[in-house]
Amino acid sequence: MIPASSVVNLRLGAAAVDCSCRVPVLTLFVGATMWLCLGLLLNLLAAIKFHSPAFLSVAPWQTYGRIYPAGMTAMLYGFALQAGVGVALWMIARLGRTVLRGPMVATIAALFWNFAVFSGVVAILGGGTSGHELLEMPVAPAAMLFIAFSLVALCALATFQDRQSGELFVSNWFLVAALFWFAWVYAAANLLLQVFPVRGVMQAVVEWWHLANFTTIVLGFLGLGTVFYFIAKLSGRPLHSQLLAAFVFWSMIVLAPWTGIAPGTPLPAWMPSVSTMFAALLIIPGLGGAVLIFRTTAGAPVSEGVSMRRFFTFGGYAWVAWMLIGAVVAVREVSYLVHFTWIVRSQMLLLVYGFLVMVFLGAMAFIANAVLGGQGLCPRKLRATYWLVASGAVLGVVPLLAGGLLEGMAHAKPTVDFMAAANRALMPLRLSTVGDILVLLAAGLFAWNLARAIFTALRQAAQPTWKAMTREVTA
Amino acid sequence: MNRGPWIFLGALLALGASFYGLILRPQIALGRMAETKTIGDENTYPLARPGLAAQGEQIYRAHGCVYCHSQQVRPMEADLDKYGLRRSVASDYLFASPAQLGRQRMGPDLTNIGRRNRTAEWQLQHLYAPRMVSPGSTMPPYPWFFQVRPLRGEPLPEAIKLTPPYAPPEGYEVVPTRDALALVAYLNSLRVDVGLFEAPLPPVPTNAPAAGTNGVPAATNSLPAAPAP
User: Fold this and answer.
1) CB contact burial B182-210 (16+ within 10 A = b; e otherwise)
2) What is the predicted ipTM?
3) Is A366 left (phi over 0), alpha (psi -120 to 50) or beta?
């Protein structure tokens, strides 16, 4: 005997699922888009300081050491995590063929989330940083962010529990793991650094452990789950191999949490050694992901979905490149050469521009179209957004990779003094600023596109009411 | 493939293992670390920073100096040549709060900035106008650490000397604030020049002119350990 409620749910069409997601998911997306624009703007201001160090140096909040972490906080906690969680909510509901649980809770939590990031960014600009990379937010905003995240994640888990389809698509593994991971890693790191601070060098260990887990597992899995879902959907065929995807998942969660400690750090020698070995082994899931993306998309019939699919193929390959570069620079000899150089930054930009911005802008556009109904986002502007992000990511990352290598080789020579070596990266660095500008333009264009689509939908929804009201008045 | 509970259990084990291996176990070992004795003269190491330098550490944190300056000497030739007498070890950071090892060097490593014979005057000039003392530097200036004040008679003794185009207009002087002095006190407290059991100083040939490649007199094992700050 099947309970009556599940009979109703089984008949739920995609439209009903989308309808239940509309308000919370769009709230998360609007917030994410605004933080992306603001984060990229701060990032650009930070980059300009390498063209002209005296630019914007009147007040303390304008200094590089505050603008840069504020921008990264906005981009990673405001944009990437928020957009990723919004995409996850929708995908979990869609894949489970069930309505979203607690849409009201998720919406209110999303508002709190944005307030938390706002107060965190303001605190960093005001000098209240904790001093730990990607954990700069002071205790109060961090706690607020954690609570807001937990509420949204609970809605996602309740929806996941409600799933009506027996099949558990592999994307769900990645998404649910990412939610669980963030709650643990973020809470543990903040407790151990800000509430009950550990002493001395252990602070750096906690910071790097969080950094590795946050980037590779939390953000990586949110993005990867999205990529696997959309490349299959938009290619009109199932994912090449569920088994290979499961292998990528398991190898990632076993290996990646141990990475992040660079060779030569002032720690017991086994720690960087283990970290290096596991980071180098990450080359295997990286290649597995590449095979999955290639075999799923190559030769797929060109359908109407193909113009959206490129967001996810580009993003997917950017993830592969990020994994491979990460594996190479973890090796002791390479790390001694390039750690501390601009290569560290180029890896971050590859993750953010090439993977996260690309994938989540594509996913947000697709989902906004689905939940808004009607016209949705302008496809021509979306195509322009794609090209701007793609060229921005390449121009932002490649020069920094080359510059970092040049700089590292110069630093290794005892005869070259610091400034001469550092200045070898200056030209590539300035070139990469063009990439920053292009991605900022893409974000601005996307924000305009999304805002217009939402306003159009709102106006259309309001029109019958408005007509009825005016009829009453004129009658 | 509906294996939800197994996936959850697997994820729990994977994350738990890394939390135990990289955080809990090392914390049990490193968290109990206390001051040690230096080699040779058996001084206590490290010493806590005195008040002004400790305040400077918070200014260093608040301004995000760590995004451009590491404090970490790796056991490799180039690092040892340019930044340190020996590699950094866990003991060196015992009183660092927060520990700011850094991940990038857009500016030089600061592990031993206190040993580099920079005067307080040089540090202050460098903070006010980096390119005046270090042409071509990409370091941003920090004018809010200073007050530009009208001259009243003789310049104050603490006013910093500046050359055009960085000098203030005629009849004005540039005076460091307490924040600037605290930051400089912190920078001067950064020195790792004593040998420890796990990181001895390299032997220095006797009778040779003791000079490092960066113009810093190399320390010897018998050198009385300078009080940290």
Assistant:
1) bbbbbbbbbbbbbbbeebebeeeeeeeee
2) 0.92
3) alpha
- Please tell me the distance in Å from B152's CA to the nearest CA on chain A: 25
What confidence score (pLDDT) does residue B227 get? 44
Residue B95 has pLDDT above 70, yes or no: yes
Q: How far is B165 from chain A (nearest CA, A)?
A: 13
Put simply, the answer to whether A341 touches B105 (Cβ < 8 Å) is yes
Q: Are the beta carbons of A116 and A74 closer than 8 angstroms? A: no
Cβ–Cβ under 8 Å, residues A428 and A406: yes
Give the Cβ contact number of residue B9 at 10 Å: 11
DSSP B223: S
Are residues A180 and B213, on separate chains, in Cβ contact within 8 Å? no
* Across A58-76, average pLDDT: 97
Q: What is the DSSP letter of B96?
A: -
Residue A120 · residue A74 · CB < 8 Å: no
Report the predicted TM-score, pTM, of the whole model to 2 decimal places.
0.92
d(CA A165, CA A91) in angstroms, rounded, equals 13
Q: What is the three-class DSSP state of A331?
A: coil
Q: Which residues contact A270 (CB under 8 A, 6 or more apart)?
A: none
Query: Which of B8, B20, B23 would best serve as a mutation to test chain A binding (most A beta carbons within 10 A)?
Result: B23
B62 contacts chain A (CB < 8 A):
yes
CA atoms of B79 and A263, how far apart (whole Å):
13
